[in-house]
Amino acid sequence: MTICGGGNAAHVLAPLAAQAGWEVDIFAPFADEAQRLRAGMQAQDGLQARFADGAVLRGEARCISGDAADVIPDATLVLLALPAYAHGATLLAIAPYLRDGATIVALPARSGFAMQARRALGVDGKAATIAGLQTLPWACRTVRYGGEVSVLGSKSEVDIAVYPAARTAETAALLEDLLRVPLRAIGSFLALTLANTGQLIHPGIMYGLCQGREGEIYQEAEIPMFYQGVDHGTAALLQALSDEVQCIARALCEQLADFNAEEVSSLYDWLLRAYPDDIADKRDLQHAFNSNRAYKGLRLPVRAAENGRYRVDFAARYLSEDVPCGLVVVRGIAELAGLATPAIDAVIRWAQERLGKRYLDNGALGGPDVHSSRAPQAYGVTRLSELQGGIV
Ligand code: NAD
Q1: CA nearest 267: which of 297, 301, 230?
Q2: Is residue 164 within 8 Å of residue 129, measured between CB atoms?
Q3: Which residues are marked as active site?
Q4: Which residues lie across from 64 on neighbouring strands?
Q5: How far is the CA of 327 from the centre of ligand 1 (A)?
Q6: From ligand 1's centre to the CA of 83, what distance in Å?
Q7: pTM of this prediction?
Q8: What would the pLDDT profile of 250-305 be if each residue is shown by its tens digit?
Q9: Does the CB atom of residue 95 touch ligand 1 within 6 A?
Q10: Residue nearest to atom 6 of ligand 1 (CA)
Q11: Whether residue 83 has its Cβ less than 6 Å from ligand 1
């Protein structure tokens, strides 16, 4: 197997893979990660993943390289442990070396992954299998680079989509054995795209915390709590975003023969399913966010400003990943279905200003940056019927 990426998730995957009996290579072309991973693993005698229940797993890598030619040709399984905005470049780098019949898995897929992967890999010719997880199965942070990672919590269940769908059962079984997390197979990548709750939660809370206060400068202790900072108004916005996605799912169910709207959970239902034992107060969406111990202590992303203070970091993943590879994709699907999405539009309009991009233009997805998003329109799709088969 080859793990692509050298971050937190990659640090968890290598020991899990070793436990499951895989020989592991790592593709780490980003900055000097390959060299740092090699040095870290040599100095610390391999990688150690410490789980919240006390379990400790160890793993090693056979080869760590920034050159796909070294680590892709032998792999029957390729795991993308990357933010979604790095998927495109990584897929293009591995495509020339990928063997026929390989399985490529994105953890997490975010939105629009399958269409991007098929285009980048020329997959139908290569007979590859593409799989995507709805979220990363763990909350994890690297403690020592190339040496130790802490797994703070694991999801109770994670959705998985596979293309071609006929390979779903065998691929889900293989990954369940590897990841040690129950996987729920859903019928299509289109459903997985709409079921991506990160695209609602992250930009939605950024908007709630920062809209109208974009230039605020904080002392360290004043940096707002992210999830615990969800107030009544932000919860109402998150609910409106989720309601619009539910509305799109119902419309697709009517218009596409093979689409199952029940596979797209509402935000509240997803929270309760992903964190059944972590949420102390389940009375409503706001309190479910505020009282989720898996979210405790996480703050608004910031960057250093003058005099030891901090400004909001609008380049952080909560917008730079979850808008072009998230909300914009859903907005594109809504446009194909002829549905208005006022809440989604308000968040995209605000976020695109912060990112210096333009996706929405005069109320339509016609801005110059649509082509660098994963909206179906970026791939030339103009009619909903082209999404038959659920590949987005
Ligand atoms: P990370 O930031 O630790 O690592 C990401 C890795 O991606 C980097 O180490 C690098 O190898 C690669 N990368 C980053 N930017 C790149 C670029 N521009 N070009 C090429 N490669 C690049 O991320 P992570 O914590 O391992 O998370 C991976 C994914 O899982 C992300 O989508 C994240 O949002 C999601 N996620 C993470 C957690 C968590 O607890 N870590 C929880 C939920 C979801």
Answers
A1: 230
A2: yes
A3: 202
A4: 26
A5: 19
A6: 4
A7: 0.96
A8: 999 999 988 999 999 999 999 999 999 999 999 999 999 999 998 999 999 999 99
A9: no
A10: 7
A11: yes
